[in-house]
Amino acid sequence: MAACSSRSGATPSNQRAPSKTLVASHMAWLRGPRMATLPSYQSPSTKVHVADCAAVASVIARFRFDAACLVSLEDALAGAVNRHQADFVEASEAQESDQVCNRCLHLAPPALKTVAMHYVAYVFDAYGTLFDVHAAVRRHDGEIGPDGQLLSEIWRAKQLEYSWVRTLMGGYADFWQLTEQALDFALRKVPSADKGLKAKLLEAYWRLDCYPEVPAVLKALKASGAKLAILSNGSPEMLEAAVKSAALDHVLDDIFSVDAVKRFKTDPSTYDMVATGWRLYPGAVSFQSSNRWDIAGATKFGFRTVWINRANQPEEYRDFPPALILPSLEGLLSGG
């Protein structure tokens, strides 16, 4: 049961049920959907989707709000509107999809987030999201020479390309094999790089640095009561080594490797490992990845998604948008 609080001075929510008129008017008020200009929330010229009835219904269904929570939710919405003196206008098109509903809620004023924004589980992609995939090459930059960055980018691009091609053709090989094959290609493609460094680079890949904010963010989410996991293309051995090297093993509840289904992301079976393994509706899971293609796949599956756009890349896959875009994981602790 999700926790709810009611307006100051009102009857406690566990003793109070909403009238049918109240609920009906609440849903009618939200229907549309509506848009609002919230001067103290974003710039005065910014119009923000606040919520619609489908979004509220989705939250109630996912997080098992009881009847009294409807009252508290309406209280929070009304309070937010009053505080911000929001100006509502009709949106030009209906916004009925689950992905848009999630985005509406995430752009809502803080008072609405306090009631509605709770996730049972936070699941993270590993490589590029928690762990810096370019750390292996940087560790040996002095020996590689001036083309180290190019080598690293080709290595990563081929690693991903091989995973997609093998899934499409049904020829699975574990991620460590693909990582080694991708490095072989990168070393051939960049003649200035010393091929004798292959063993050192592969060894460094087992102990990639995590991004600076990762330990603190995961600890804070764990302390909030949420379940935490990794969902990654990495092999079980690779992930175990990376997690232990970064001292994250004590905050993670689970590590999901696609090796269990022998297919790589974005195949739906990879995301379903979390929903099935933890017996959760997809919408109860917040999935974070730095890879926009991964966010598209997870959004299509039904996860609430957060794109960690570390490299400030342009938007793509616009028909499968994330609920939120952040430059790092730190934003998860401030209402994300």
TrEMBL record:
<dbReference type="InterPro" id="IPR006439">
    <property type="entry name" value="HAD-SF_hydro_IA"/>
</dbReference>
<keyword id="KW-0378">Hydrolase</keyword>
<dbReference type="InterPro" id="IPR036412">
    <property type="entry name" value="HAD-like_sf"/>
</dbReference>
<comment type="similarity">
    <text>Belongs to the HAD-like hydrolase superfamily. S-2-haloalkanoic acid dehalogenase family.</text>
</comment>
<dbReference type="Pfam" id="PF00702">
    <property type="entry name" value="Hydrolase"/>
</dbReference>
<dbReference type="InterPro" id="IPR006328">
    <property type="entry name" value="2-HAD"/>
</dbReference>
<dbReference type="InterPro" id="IPR051540">
    <property type="entry name" value="S-2-haloacid_dehalogenase"/>
</dbReference>
<dbReference type="InterPro" id="IPR023198">
    <property type="entry name" value="PGP-like_dom2"/>
</dbReference>
<protein>
    <recommendedName>
        <fullName>(S)-2-haloacid dehalogenase</fullName>
        <ecNumber>3.8.1.2</ecNumber>
    </recommendedName>
</protein>
<comment type="function">
    <text>Catalyzes the hydrolytic dehalogenation of small (S)-2-haloalkanoic acids to yield the corresponding (R)-2-hydroxyalkanoic acids.</text>
</comment>
<dbReference type="InterPro" id="IPR023214">
    <property type="entry name" value="HAD_sf"/>
</dbReference>
